[in-house]
Amino acid sequence: MTEPTDKTEHSDDDAPLLPENLTSEDPGSRTLIPGNGSIVLAATPIGNMGDATFRLVSLLESADVIAAEDTRRLQRLIRSLEVSPRGRTLSYHEHNEASRTPELLDLVDAGATLLLVTDAGMPSVSDPGFRLVEAAAERNITVTVAPGPSAVLTALALSGLPTDRFCFEGFLPRKTGERAARLADLRTERRTMVFFEAPHRLEAMIRALHSEFGADRQACVTRELTKRYEEVIRGPLQHLLEWVEGNEIRGEIAVVVGGAPEDAPTEPEDHVHAVNELMSQGLRLKDAVAAVAEDRRVSKRELYAAVVAART
């Protein structure tokens, strides 16, 4: 669930990934049979190494190729699990997905078993993997999953909020205006929502949720899931805002927000923040009020008065 960062690669990481390279580096490698290859997406622990599955250990030991979001983290995982991989390890992240995907698929076509792991949790869920699976489907290449830990589902289960219907929204946009626009779209979402956020941006996020969804909307912040200092804070957004303002936040964060109540009433005052956000992007007060009033279906006159009142 970590945000993508630049990775340090091995010195031979950009070498051509020809099938013979797989066996030449390891005399004990099996002979590859074209057409017998497959891709396995494997979930890795999100914190506690005890959550690694027996299947993950077996795959790490037996895969012909291990593609990892960060090869340094993979090495730490391998050491923790006391695994001895026989296959080649290489990087696969947002900066090389486009170029590396066809090369990986060629290896699988040649008969290799490719194991894809990310820094934590399930590949392709806010992590590399989607592009590979999409391309594999187009080439009729077998893809399977070795399920395991998921920060999304762990946070949802701990939140105490409805789990019968939910959606995953990933990271909100960093820019204030774009974030406000995204939350405006989600204001009437009835399903429970799960977000990821960086610790240094959590306060801004909670403040934006508070402004857009209201002080009483129920939510939950989870921090350092499954780790030693795991923390879960539940309550209305007003409580969470006070908590985040009074604490130094560290670690990996998942935020769960309750869905909008049925026929939730809105008042002009609820949309003042949205008007101010548009004005911060250069719109005149009159134009910003008109845009928000039309989008939220509130009285333009009453909204204008609410904005003016909030300034006095």
TrEMBL record:
Region of interest (Disordered), ranges: 1-31
Residue ranges of every copy of the Tetrapyrrole methylase domain listed in the record: 39-240
Compositional bias segments (type: Basic and acidic residues): 1-10
Compartments in which it is found: Cytoplasm
CDD domains: RsmI
Keywords: Cytoplasm, Methyltransferase, rRNA processing, S-adenosyl-L-methionine, Transferase
Pfam family, any one: TP_methylase
Major site of localization recorded for this protein: cytoplasm
EC numbers on record: 2.1.1.198
Its biological purpose: Catalyzes the 2'-O-methylation of the ribose of cytidine 1402 (C1402) in 16S rRNA.
Family: Belongs to the methyltransferase superfamily. RsmI family.
PANTHER family per the UniProt record, alphabetical: RIBOSOMAL RNA SMALL SUBUNIT METHYLTRANSFERASE I
Name assigned to this protein: Ribosomal RNA small subunit methyltransferase I
Organism: Arthrobacter parietis
